Amino acid sequence: MHPQSVQKLKRRIQTLRARMADVGPVMRGSVVRLGTTCGHPRCHCARGDKHLQTYFSLNRDGKTVLMFLGKSREVEARRYVGNYRRLLALAEEMTTVMMELVKQKDFV
Question: Is the pTM of this model over 0.90?
Fold first, then answer.
């Protein structure tokens, strides 16, 4: 590989590292809306039109864990989940670049 190409890959690694550092708080999981019933026999949910509740869902050790968010914490939780997905995408790109550098035996 041409030395300029190796330098370009190394610069890309530095850029990715900087972007990773700027990601912010992360949460692995999903923000989901689930329908619930309140138990009042005259409520619309008793006829099938359920109340939508917002939760954070995480699969941990093969089990789904739910945390109630409500409306007040939904926006932040969605941002943290988005940050996690951005961090994951950056890690994937860094892996691709690092594979090329390792292939060339030119480690960072």
Answer: no
